[in-house]
Amino acid sequence: MKPAPFAYERARSLDHAIELIAGAEDARLLAGGQSLIATLNMRLSRPQLLVDINRVPDLDRITLNTSQIEIGALVRYAEAERSAEIATHAPLIAKALPFIGHPAIRNRGTIGGSIAFGDPAAELPACFVALDGEAVIAGPSGTRVVKADAFYKGLFESALTPRDVLTAIRIPAATSETRTAFAELARRHGDYAMVGLAATARAAGKALSDVRIVFFGVGTTPVRAHSAEAALATGDIEAAVKTIAADLEPPDDVQATGAVKRQLAGVLLRRVARQLMGEDA
Amino acid sequence: MSERFHDIALTVNGEDVRERVDARKTLVDFLREDLSLTGSHVGCEHGVCGACTVRVDGVVVRGCLMLAVQCDGTRVETIEGVSDLGEIADLQSAFETRNALQCGYCTPGMLLTAQELLASGRVPSRDEIRAHISGNYCRCTGYQAIVDAVEAVAQSRAGGRR
User: Fold this and answer.
1) pLDDT above 90 covers what percent of chain A?
2) Among A8, A272, A279, B59, which is least packed by CB within 10 angstroms?
3) Which structural domains are found in chain B, ordered by start?
């Protein structure tokens, strides 16, 4: 299908983008467009105005601060895959990127677009929560920072209002104690996952602390598995797998039934736990 | 007041193009309908099949997931241009020799996507080739012959450099 008619404006600056979306009834920001334009083509979305932020300066930078790496919203997946900073300081993101779509999608799609859109089956929102990241949000009354745990509120709902622009995400830079792991099961490479899992922990010898286990494709947002986190901190992988039923109630969807998803979640949890503990999965 | 119609200027296969476009027109529809470059095909129109693959500023993109109006100031290359320049003559020949196409619907996208992998200069493994073309559907060949063709070209290009 073809999109319904809409007006288009190219934002020259961040302030210009905020001004443009503030002045319209029903405006959408256009970043990489790899989800948005598909929904326009299918007429699942019919905005009056698209505000293209692709040429807004300075949103495509990767910056290392003292203890954080800041990834600009317009950094494209393919650029992030080539980034030595991300490979070194955000290894979880580096592990997840090859699972996102296909090369042509990764050449256009942006980190900020994925975080802001918040597809519950997408890889990066789960990584963002697992990494205990922060979203940097610019709006009409200035800039604010929202923690990842408070960012996602419901299906395609986040701390972003229709007048906000996500400008960057910040994540704690990995240290020698940081452990990260990522796994997903999809029917075809690059498809949305039936179930996926992003995890981080701090290693002290063989023990793990600060375990964060975040599933995707199992609910309306990325889902933290709190009971599994507590069980993994004691080193008991099988106990953690047994808690899955308590942590997750995946609904049936086009990919798989909820029961299958729960079973697969346990399989992935075993793999990821072994990765966190430094063994090959 | 925000407008639906915009003037754009870009190069397509090296030629300057100036057109007025409706903001809702996708790049692949612009190429096919306004410029009569029908080598890029329209399949699923939501980024899954890869039939609409073209290059914008040197990288492959989905022609159905980019708007023509976004291409103002860019350099667009289609299968027609890349073919005429001879850049992929060896790959096209390998596709023909190995029956890596039947109906041909996926072929332009498949060629441009494979060329991006081959341009890296390495000889990719068969698994890497499969992962790289995973976003391009072929409903005729079963992919085996396509992987064969891409692998053969990677090897022959590497051999030619020795």
Assistant:
1) 91
2) A279
3) 5-82 (3.10.20.30), 86-157 (1.10.150.120)
